[in-house]
Design a protein that fits this description.
It is found in: Cytoplasm. This protein is of the alpha/beta class and about 375 residues long. Helix content is about 45%, strand content about 15%.
Length: about 375
């Protein structure tokens, strides 16, 4: 079968992604013409498949690429139980993936906390990733592939700009990451949603459209607040930006995210070196001798040494100190601790969420997740 240029590019992107994960051709026989079955012990590539156009295209192309390399290829679909027909949709996705030749193919039902303070979409994402990690561990997957596209990346940048500030708001989604000891990768962050739809047509694939995406809604009427923010950005904001700028902004947004991710990685690497020099402690800080159960983590910051660093690096080190102490934080808290570092004039201890206190004593700032520690 002769593939189109866009499908060949998608195949190439996936091969590069797998190579970056250390998944190369398993033996020379897989370079020969004809179809060759992978060995039973070959590494398993697991595709997270919702049944939408993006993930169905990725499942099909993964099967092709894994066949070229001698890798096993399977899929997992997650039934969130939110829609009334979710079980039937999951069963259909399983059947379609098996029809493509993927094996193993499994479906997992999850319980989504509908009352979560973070919102239904975030709760569903947390439950989904938890199930994907569990499946990958049980099946011994070498990597889990996610079908996020360039359009998804652009939407993620716009969400980040709306919800937070700073460089990390615009870095978008990483191309690869670890969660729960499982490797995840996004091979198609440079592939558009239009291309995945075209690939489905080329490969004769059918897909399921999630009604919460708003694809079937009136394109001339805005989606109401019952739709997820991502869907409203896709349906309303990006078309408005296209009209305003005279071109689709998703390519520029995704390219900007890739550039920002490099800058963020450079800053994080430099901050990690500084943190190794100025942070210490990371010990339990409860008062065991009085029988208190109010124990937490204590981290010390050498403020005198940190003060000479650039603000962007100082604040990353402060975030790392709070992370080690197990403290929740906001940008306001980080800025307040930064002032303790560079503008020390006897300020009172800071009280942070989750029972964390921050106090400066001489040249040392003590961060302790223990509500009474700083005053004992």
């Amino acid at each position: 079968m002769a593939y189109s240029a866009s499908l060949r590019k998608a195949i190439g992107d996936l091969r590069l992604c797998l190579a970056a994960q250390g998944l190369a051709r398993q033996s020379a026989r897989f370079a020969e013409h004809g179809r060759h079955e992978p060995d039973p012990g070959a590494p398993l590539v697991l595709v997270a498949c919702s049944g939408g156009r993006d993930s169905m295209a990725l499942a099909a192309v993964s099967r092709i690429v894994c066949g070229m390399l001698g890798l096993r290829c399977g899929a997992v679909t997650i039934d969130h139980g939110i829609a009334a027909d979710s079980a039937a949709v999951a069963a259909d996705v399983v059947a379609r993936c098996r029809g493509l030749g993927l094996d193993p193919v499994v479906s997992r039902a999850v319980a989504v906390d509908r009352a979560s303070a973070t919102g239904l979409e975030a709760a569903a994402r947390q439950a989904r990733y938890g199930a994907l990690v569990d499946c990958a561990r049980e099946l011994g997957a070498a990597v889990v592939l996610l079908a996020h596209t360039r359009d998804d990346q652009a939407e993620t940048v716009l969400i980040g700009l709306a919800r937070s500030g700073g460089l990390n708001a615009i870095v978008g989604m990483p191309s690869a990451f670890r969660r729960g000891g499982v490797r995840f990768a996004r091979p198609w962050l440079d592939v558009t949603r239009a291309r995945t739809g075209a690939m489905c047509g080329e490969l004769g694939l059918r897909w399921w459209d999630d009604p919460t995406n708003g694809d079937a809604a009136d394109p001339d009427a805005p989606l109401d607040a019952s739709y997820p923010l991502r869907s409203r950005i896709r349906h309303d904001l990006i078309p408005a930006m296209t009209r305003c700028y005279g071109h689709d902004p998703t390519a520029a947004l995704a390219a900007g995210a890739a550039s920002a991710a490099l800058d963020a990685d450079c800053l994080e690497t430099a901050a990690a070196r500084i943190a190794a020099d100025v942070l210490s402690g990371d010990t339990l800080c409860g008062d065991e001798k009085d029988g208190s159960n109010d124990t937490g983590r204590r981290v010390l910051i050498d403020a005198a040494r940190l003060a000479d660093e650039h603000p962007a690096l100082r604040r990353r080190v402060i975030v790392e100190a709070l992370r080690r102490a197990g403290a929740s934080m906001s940008s306001t808290h980080v800025e307040a601790i930064d002032r303790l570092t560079v503008d020390w004039h006897g300020q009172k201890p800071l009280s942070l969420p989750s029972g964390c206190t921050v106090i400066r004593k001489g040249h040392v700032i003590e961060v302790c997740k223990d509500s009474g520690h700083a005053y004992r």
